[in-house]
Design brief:
Elements: H1 2-10, H2 14-39, E1 47-51, H3 53-59, H4 61-98, H5 104-158, E2 160-165, H6 181-195
Parallel strand pairs: 1-2
Helix pairs in contact: 3-4, 3-6, 4-5, 5-6
Length: about 200
């Protein structure tokens, strides 16, 4: 309802307006960087570049190691989950076989116990998904912080005025020659290897 009202009022959603503003700001900054050297005699860095952070995280040695660790964690948790699921299935079979033979109050109690186990299993699965998501985010955040540190020092050392993140900066076009991703991965991998 709110999105429809926003579209009716201005034609664009709040998100669309934010994207437009970001794109406009990137364009203005780009034009300013192109014009600034001709207006000023001062030596300010005018080199630009961009990094695909998702690629850097996934293809770096640290990213691959974190992924392997995460896969091992999930494999262990899946095995635990399967064990719990089989226990529930066995409990259900016993209840189905013996249900007709049991006294009414005993059967009702066993069914309650089974339903309780089902709810516990569902909660276990929800917590497992949440834990997996949290663990993956924590691993990624650390790697992203490290890569950002590498980018900052690289930019200062090499005289870059700006280095954009490829997918989140509003970058609509840039030639491949401005892509610094592989260079940043290489530097980060060297640092990561030294720390190991």
């Amino acid at each position: 309802m709110k999105v429809e009202e926003q579209k009716m009022k201005g034609g664009l959603t709040r998100r669309d307006r934010k994207k437009g503003i970001v794109s406009l700001m990137v364009g203005v900054i780009g034009v300013a960087l192109l014009v600034a050297p001709s207006l000023s005699m001062a030596q300010t860095p005018t080199k630009l570049g961009y990094v695909d952070m998702e690629k850097a995280v996934n293809e770096s040695k640290a990213g691959k190691a974190a992924r392997e660790k995460f896969v091992a964690f999930m494999k262990k948790k899946r095995a635990e989950s399967e064990k719990k699921k089989k226990e529930l299935e066995a409990m259900k079979k016993i209840l189905e076989k013996q249900g007709a033979l049991l006294a009414e109050d005993v059967r009702v109690e066993k069914e309650r116990e089974y339903q309780k186990k089902v709810r516990e299993y569902q909660l276990y699965l929800k917590n497992l998904r949440d834990d997996a998501r949290t663990k993956e985010m924590e691993m990624s955040k650390k790697i992203i912080r490290d890569i950002q540190r590498v980018i900052f020092s690289f930019a200062k050392r090499e005289g870059y005025a700006m280095i954009f993140e490829k997918s989140r900066s509003g970058l609509l076009y840039a030639p491949d020659s401005l892509d610094l991703t592989d260079t940043i991965i290489k530097i980060y991998d060297q640092e990561y290897s030294k720390r190991k």
